[in-house]
């Protein structure tokens, strides 16, 4: 049999298997009977997805939220059973799944219908553009159809209950995943090209009168102990307990208790609270206010430490809420960076795409926003997508206004914006990776809060699993101080998807698109660092000028106060000149070299010499007001002033 014949025959058998299961599910709608099936993958390597390729419980929850977004949900509600975490429920009001869609999901893990043109009739994607969702026209986040099975990080048993609007029944699938860490469980099929069993499924229909209801509920049963321990921050509390118990000193290092946490339960009876929670919100607060208070709690610590760290301020659970906010396509806690205007940022620069170009100043006027001026845009900039976890409405915890300040020369944040678009029409897709388009910003601010936000994050269709890369895609220039004050986001509108690794938490760094984004970012950083140095130099010079002006003003006010106390007018004070100044009658004039003979060199030139002269003029004016200089010869006057200057500017001063 030829390869083509084999492929066609396999496709025919797969289609027959899909049809048979779909028909059995449909036949059971009235009877309530159960249909049984194997959960299959299209590749053996994907069968191992059920062992859990995702690193944290937050990753699994992030993937389920992304699936709901792709299914056109407006809302996602998650109940984690905090602080016990025995079971987790994820609900959405998306499109729901038909029997055909569920069948495809069960039989083809990793054969995503979102990217398979032969399955466009399932209604999972937009009829015109298969890269978008069917109803709301959202750019799809899901890549290869394995997102649902991120739950293997949390449990091996779960229920899917789903319904499409207009149907008079729910479909419930009870899924039990195989454990591929056990070598005996991989013996089903080893032939090349065959599908592989990832678990067992029992499917039934449940009649309902709620015709208009739609969406999908996922009930994760008996969460793994390892996942529960992570969510409960068990390592923190157990180490703290070992520090405080026993007569012998513990070998464990002293553990910092988070500023805010959900508390903990007793190890022997997890229904009994062992330590009360310390939360930044109260239970009377609205869901949208709770996350704001979580953010404000982090920001409030900025003045008490160099730069607060996420996992020192929050326990694992609260840090999970924060990281999910960074990952999924929810609105910013404040304005989107491209919605900022001149009232928000007095200083904005545009990054240019030429090799040796310099960032250009952007002058916004009136109610003009950043995106209006430079024609920046991203899909779903402000998505109508609400995520609630345990009564907390999740936002993207990045703010670009009202940030912590310092006493540094440059005190206000600086925004740099840029974009890149290239269709690579004269190159083969295998060489270029296809079209690439993105918009970006880099924000310099005096202090990045929390510290984990220092870096760059790549958002593919406004979502990410990678979070911030503090190396800025391995930028080699050793500008450590400036780099530590930068936050950057790159919004990929087209391209880079094929560079995402299977867990969406890392990239294939050799991919052409990743390399192009990296080079663009490094060029942008060069412009940002150069412009910041220019602005810092200007600020330092301006600071010196302002400081000198304030100093002169203070001297003038002091002399005026002395004159008033002596019943003189300022006009009665004779001016003081040096040999390098202009001369007038009735004035004191001294030789600079003589007066500054014993003054340290650092006070004999430039701005410091000018300020030194101002001090000496003030001293002469005070002496004149007291009549000290009246009967002295010019030589004695100059000698007195020289002696006073030597005392004032002694080497120990």
TrEMBL record:
Instruction: Write out the ranges of the annotated region (Disordered).
Output: 1-25, 241-269
InterPro entries according to UniProt: HATPase_C_sf
What the entry lists under SUPFAM superfamilies is as follows: ATPase domain of HSP90 chaperone/DNA topoisomerase II/histidine kinase (SSF55874)
Residues in a coiled coil are none
What is the protein name given in its UniProt record? ATP-binding protein
Organism from which the protein derives:
Marinobacter oulmenensis
The lineage is:
Bacteria, Pseudomonadati, Pseudomonadota, Gammaproteobacteria, Pseudomonadales
């Amino acid at each position: 049999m030829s390869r083509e014949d084999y492929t066609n025959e396999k496709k025919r058998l797969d289609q027959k298997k899909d049809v048979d299961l779909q028909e059995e599910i449909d036949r059971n709608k009235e009877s309530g009977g159960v249909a049984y099936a194997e959960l299959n993958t299209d590749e053996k390597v994907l069968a191992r997805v059920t062992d859990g390729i995702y690193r944290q419980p937050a990753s699994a929850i992030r993937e389920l939220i992304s699936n709901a977004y792709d299914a056109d949900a407006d809302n996602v509600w998650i109940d984690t059973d905090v602080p016990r975490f025995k079971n987790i429920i994820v609900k959405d009001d998306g499109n729901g799944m038909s029997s055909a869609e569920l069948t495809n999901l069960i039989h083809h893990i990793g054969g995503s219908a979102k990217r398979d043109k032969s399955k466009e009739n399932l209604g999972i994607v937009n009829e015109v553009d298969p890269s978008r969702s069917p109803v709301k026209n959202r750019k799809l986040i899901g890549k290869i159809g394995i997102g649902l099975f991120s739950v293997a990080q949390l449990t091996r048993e779960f229920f899917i209950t789903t319904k499409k609007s207009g149907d008079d029944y729910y479909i419930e699938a009870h899924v039990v995943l195989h454990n591929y860490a056990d070598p005996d469980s991989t013996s089903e099929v080893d032939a090349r090209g065959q599908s592989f069993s990832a678990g067992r499924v029992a499917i039934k229909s449940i009649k309902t009168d709620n015709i208009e209801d739609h969406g999908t509920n996922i009930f994760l049963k008996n969460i793994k102990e390892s996942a529960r321990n992570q969510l409960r921050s068990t390592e923190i509390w157990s180490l703290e307990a070992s520090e405080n118990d026993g007569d012998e000193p513990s070998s464990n290092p002293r553990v910092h208790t988070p500023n805010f946490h959900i508390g903990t339960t007793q190890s022997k009876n997890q229904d009994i609270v062992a330590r009360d929670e310390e939360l930044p919100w109260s239970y009377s607060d609205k869901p949208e206010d709770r996350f704001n208070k979580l953010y404000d709690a982090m920001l409030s610590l900025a003045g008490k430490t160099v730069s607060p760290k996420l996992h020192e301020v929050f326990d694992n659970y609260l840090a999970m809420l924060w990281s999910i906010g960074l990952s999924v396509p929810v609105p910013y806690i404040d304005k989107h960076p491209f919605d900022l205007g001149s009232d928000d940022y007095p200083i904005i620069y545009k990054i240019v795409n030429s090799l040796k170009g310099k960032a250009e100043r952007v002058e916004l006027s009136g109610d003009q926003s950043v995106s209006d001026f430079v024609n920046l845009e991203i899909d779903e900039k402000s998505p109508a997508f609400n995520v609630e976890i345990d009564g907390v409405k999740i936002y993207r915890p990045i703010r670009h206004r009202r940030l912590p300040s310092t006493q540094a020369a440059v005190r206000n944040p600086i925004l740099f914006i840029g974009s890149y678009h290239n269709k690579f029409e004269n190159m083969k897709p295998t060489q270029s990776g296809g079209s690439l388009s993105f918009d970006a910003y880099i924000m310099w601010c005096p202090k990045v809060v929390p510290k984990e936000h220092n870096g760059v994050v790549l958002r593919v269709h406004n979502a990410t699993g990678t979070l911030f890369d503090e190396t800025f895609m391995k930028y080699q220039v050793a500008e450590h101080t400036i780099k530590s004050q930068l936050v950057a986001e790159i919004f990929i509108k087209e391209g880079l998807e094929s560079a995402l690794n299977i867990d969406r938490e890392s990239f294939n760094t050799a991919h052409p698109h990743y390399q192009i984004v990296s080079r663009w970012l490094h060029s942008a950083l060069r412009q940002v660092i150069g412009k910041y140095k220019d602005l810092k130099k200007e600020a330092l010079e301006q600071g010196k000028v302002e400081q000198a002006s304030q100093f002169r003003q203070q001297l003038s006010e002091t002399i005026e106060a002395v004159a008033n106390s002596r019943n003189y007018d300022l006009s009665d004070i004779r001016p003081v000149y040096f040999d390098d100044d202009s001369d007038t009658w009735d004035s004191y004039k001294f030789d600079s070299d003589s007066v500054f003979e014993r003054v340290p060199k650092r006070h004999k030139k430039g701005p410091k010499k000018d300020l030194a002269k101002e001090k000496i003029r003030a001293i002469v004016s005070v002496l004149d007001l007291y009549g000290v200089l009246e009967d002295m010869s010019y030589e004695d006057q100059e000698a007195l002033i020289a002696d006073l200057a030597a005392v004032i500017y002694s080497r120990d001063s």
